Amino acid sequence: MTEPVENERGRVRDGESRRNALARVLFLPFRWLYKLWFVLVFFSSLVLLYIPFRILLYTPQRYVKAFRLKRVWARYLAYAGGVPPRIIRRAALPEPPYVVCSNHGSYLDIIQMYNVIPRYFLFIGKYELLKWPLFNMFFKGMNIAVNRGDRGEAAKAFRKAAQAIDRGTSIAIFPEGTIPAYAPRMKPFKDGAFKLAVEKQVPIVPVTFIDHWRYFGEPMELFSRARPGIARVVIHDPIATTGLTDADVISLRRRVYEVIEGPLMED
């Protein structure tokens, strides 16, 4: 009896695979249309805001105003792009400065961070962002681009982040370093964010973006995911680092990873 049952299960799996493949093909035009719409919304609004942003980013004294404009822009992108956030707060945000750590399943994470964290913060992003047309202006002065392939440059970027914390400015970072190909499963976290938080004795605010990986995959990939929907975001309890030392970095990293991963596993 075992062989017929296994054959039947195999036929069911094959049938499901064919149906899934057919569904992907049928919905492909809608994905392309949605991607085209989102790209149009993004770049048309960025072109309109380019001059105001350039003016505000000209001097550090105006960075807070640039941040406020970015929040307005992020809200527009979220709603016009069809991915309005639904924020689930497990706790109130602590007084700045703090280090925000989140999973990174989509480029939507960057936009939504400005809808999630209301008070002025700086992003630490990958060095490649300096090569993006128009968007690179945010990482030439205000935010911090880190070249993880160059140890000296990486150390310089984190010193800049430490100086920002000394001034009372919070930092936001994706500890995975990049978007994993197998999202929503997360890549192992890198140590930088946790060493920074321990060194400066500031709390870590874990954030989980639950749905972004479903709504927007790699923009340049033909068959990548793309659709609108409500974007759930969980802001977790802050994790204190007071009294922690370098010896605690690994356990702190593991704890933050588990907290962020929790809602993804439950979903």
How does the SSE layout of this entry go?
Elements: H1 2-56, H2 63-80, E1 85-89, E2 99-102, H3 108-116, E3 121-126, E4 144-146, H4 151-166, E5 170-173, H5 192-200, E6 204-209, H6 212-215, E7 231-235, H7 249-266
Parallel strand pairs: 1-7, 2-5, 2-6, 3-4, 3-5
Antiparallel strand pairs: 6-7
Q: What overall geometry do the principal axes of the alpha carbons give? A: globular
Secondary structure class reads: alpha/beta
Helix content: 40-55%
Q: Which architecture would the CATH scheme give at its second level? A: 3-Layer(aba) Sandwich
Q: What is the third-level CATH name, the topology?
A: Glycerol-3-phosphate (1)-acyltransferase
Assembly status: single chain
Mean pLDDT comes to: 88
Number of domains: 1
CATH class: Alpha Beta
**Numbering strands along the chain, what is their spatial order in the largest sheet?**
1-7-6-2-5-3-4
Give a quick summary of the entry.
With 267 residues, the chain is of the alpha/beta class. Helix content is 48%, strand content 12%.
How does this structure look, described?
This protein has 7 helices and 7 strands; from the N terminus they run ααββαββαβαβαβα. Helix 4 runs parallel beside helix 5 (192-200). 48% of the residues lie in helices and 12% in strands. It has a single domain, classed as Glycerol-3-phosphate (1)-acyltransferase (3-Layer(aba) Sandwich). With 267 residues, the chain is an alpha/beta fold. 32% of the residues are buried.
